[in-house]
Design brief:
Oligomer: heterodimer
Radius of gyration of chain B: 24 Å
Helix content of chain A: over 70%
Low-confidence stretches of chain A: none
Helix content of chain B: over 70%
Distance between the termini of chain B: 48 Å
Strand content of chain A: under 5%
Largest sheet of chain A: none
Largest sheet of chain B: none
Radius of gyration of chain A: 24 Å
Mean pLDDT of chain A: 82
Structural class of chain A: mainly alpha
Number of helices of chain B: 12
Low-confidence stretches of chain B: 1-18
Chain lengths: 318, 305
């Protein structure tokens, strides 16, 4: 087991390196002048050639690409992540302040997707093609098609329209002010969680239907174990493995999906910071946030792999 | 039984059902599809209608999508503007109709570009194997380490706003999926006996790939492409909503939703409801059509693609 974890972490390190190269290529080498982003197209044309060169030097953008890459890596290792073009706050401070909110949203969303998705899948799989199964499938197909941020906008609009309620816009930490914090987090978490629950329900249903056909489940039935117990203790543990793997992939959807959803709710989380960075064309912030999101995604997937290996010895020993 | 008799027996087969002119055959296939999965056929028709709406937008739209009428600003739905007007008096219905143009153009172009190049890559790396496969797998893994919206955002931002950049940004996020799926199909095909037989007969690498392996990849590719259409539409709308999509005056569903947030403290409900509903219906249509095509072409792929 220990060896397996080490091996996965080794592969993860290679992936993180590859990811950093991709981010660097996308943000720095693709055409597009960062000075245009800072000063705007008009301000840019007013700068003299010498001024442009000076700014580029100050920002460390006139160094060779390889040197720039090493500087960036050094910034990451020392934990400073560089500065925004437009704000005094360093990217590291921003992550520390806004990150917890988005993490909370992600955790609640995943928990919610399991709490809703698995029971729905069990109901569906117990009587395939019954009324309740068809209903559950129609709902999940609908949820797969609805953009989360639109649902978020509708919820915000509905609450304002009928109840005059709006979630607090100022940030609040879970420990200092749990009530405010919960009001901020709950909306995005529900939207993202229900969106994922549709995927979970779909996957768990087909996986359950496959497992139910296996011999050992029939044996349990023949011994006289009741239908519900067979599902809960015989079928579900085996059917859950692909659902855990899917959950890891879905976490990526939550990370990405939280950007437009946080914008729709006006949540002061990391997703909103990403939106701000993109609309201000803030290259440094964007570069670090994209890298952070990708690293978190890679780590979460390693975690999922380890959990799967822990649950299923066949993978551990192969 | 002589050889001539055998060919004589084959004669009637030429006119048997299933053969005939192409339109007749295609019609028959569609009819069977409709009978076997009526729900998918229905949503397929909706998808076609949306496509027709996009093509014929100038003829259908009651007003110019960019013309603002300052006498009728931010009006709720009424008999003149069925979907109401926005804060500078542009007709929402016309803008929703025109929005289907950018949405579908981007989605179709991104899928044609991204899913296809991914599929070709997967075909080559699955068939050639060896070092090429190893390197390709790593590169695809790096690309797949980004949640797709985030990668699309970064690329769209780096390249600057425009329809072309949005297409490229979404296409790049589609490559790893196409590559992965087609590669796994090719790997299983390679072990098939008919492929081995062809190799035994001395077929060249190119002939094997294009004559024997490629035709078997068409079904998974079609299924993948229809599913990706839905995903691409949602990513395009999200990019528009986040302000890195197709730039402002062009009506897209994402832009309209982003605009509605600027229309005052409480955004008017009609500016939020209709563009989002358009996205949902379109994505639903392509998803269900994709499910139907999957069930019709290859039920084994259920859940895999």
């Amino acid at each position: 087991m220990f060896n397996y974890i080490l091996r996965r972490l080794g592969f993860g390190l290679v992936t993180v390196f590859g990811v950093s190269v991709v981010v660097f290529v996308v943000m720095r080498i693709l055409p597009g002048d960062p000075l245009i982003a800072i000063f705007g197209p008009e301000g840019f044309t007013k700068l003299s050639e010498a001024e442009r060169a000076g700014y580029m030097k100050d920002l460390g953008l006139s160094d060779p690409m390889l040197v720039q890459y090493f500087h960036w890596m050094r910034d990451i290792v020392t934990g400073s992540f560089g500065h925004s073009f437009f704000r005094s706050e360093s990217v590291a401070e921003m992550i520390a302040r806004r990150g917890p909110l988005t993490a909370e949203i992600g955790i609640i969303a995943v928990a919610l997707s399991w709490i809703v998705g698995i029971p729905v899948a069990i109901i569906s799989a117990l009587r395939p093609n019954s009324m309740s199964d068809t209903f559950a499938r129609i709902i999940s197909i609908l949820f797969l098609a609805v953009p989360g941020f639109w649902v978020g906008m509708l919820i915000v609009l509905g609450l304002l329209f009928w109840f005059g309620y709006r979630a607090p816009l100022a940030s609040a930490s879970l420990w200092a002010d749990p009530a405010t914090n919960l009001q901020i987090v709950i909306g995005p978490a529900i939207v993202l969680g229900l969106g994922q629950a549709a995927y979970i329900a779909r996957m768990a249903r087909s996986s359950l239907l496959e497992v139910i056909r296996e011999d050992y489940v029939r044996t349990a039935r023949a011994k006289g174990v009741s239908g519900r117990l067979v599902i809960a203790f015989h079928a579900l543990p085996n059917a859950i493995l692909p659902v855990i793997t899917l959950s890891g992939i879905l976490l990526g959807f939550v990370l990405a999906g939280s950007i437009p959803v946080e914008r729709a709710f006006g949540t002061p989380g990391l997703g909103y910071a990403m939106f701000t960075a993109v609309s201000e064309r803030d290259v440094f912030v964007m570069q670090n946030l994209v890298f952070l999101y990708a690293v978190v995604f890679v780590l979460l997937n390693i975690m999922v792999d380890v959990i799967i290996a822990w649950l299923d010895p066949r993978i551990r020993y192969s | 039984m002589s050889v001539s008799q055998t060919t004589g027996d084959l004669g009637p087969v030429e006119t048997a059902p299933g053969r005939g002119a192409f339109p007749v055959r295609a019609g028959r296939v569609l009819l069977t599809f409709g009978r076997r999965s009526p729900l998918s056929a229905f949503w397929g028709c909706i998808a076609l209608l949306i496509l027709a709406m996009a093509v014929a937008a100038p003829a259908i739209a009651p007003y110019e999508p960019l013309k603002s009428d300052f006498r009728r600003m931010q009006k709720p739905p009424n008999e003149r503007n069925w979907f109401g007007t926005d804060q500078i008096g542009r007709d929402t219905l016309s803008r929703v109709i025109y929005g289907s143009r950018s949405s579908l153009t981007v989605a179709i172009a991104a899928v044609l570009l991204g899913t296809t190049s991914g599929a070709v890559w997967g075909l080559m790396s699955g068939y050639l194997g060896g070092r090429f496969d190893l390197v390709s797998q790593r590169i695809l893994e790096f690309l797949q380490s980004f949640p797709d919206l985030i990668l699309a955002m970064a690329i769209a931002m780096a390249l600057g706003a425009g329809t072309g950049t949005v297409i490229v940004a979404i296409a790049i996020t589609r490559i790893p999926f196409g590559g992965r799926v087609i590669r796994s199909v090719v790997l299983s095909l390679r072990e098939m006996q008919y492929v081995e037989a062809a190799r035994g007969l001395g077929a060249s690498s190119k002939r094997m790939m294009f004559r024997h392996i490629l035709p078997q990849c068409v079904a998974p590719y079609l299924i993948l492409a229809t599913t990706h259409l839905g995903v691409a539409i949602i990513i395009e709308a999200s990019l528009g909503f986040l302000g890195v999509g197709i730039p402002a005056p062009t009506p897209t569903w994402g832009n309209m939703l982003a605009d509605s947030l600027n229309a005052g403290l409480i955004p008017p409900w009609w500016l939020v409801l209709f563009p989002g509903a358009a996205i949902t219906v379109t994505v639903l249509a392509f998803n269900l059509l994709g499910d139907g095509i999957r069930d019709a072409l290859d039920p084994r792929l259920r859940g895999a693609v």
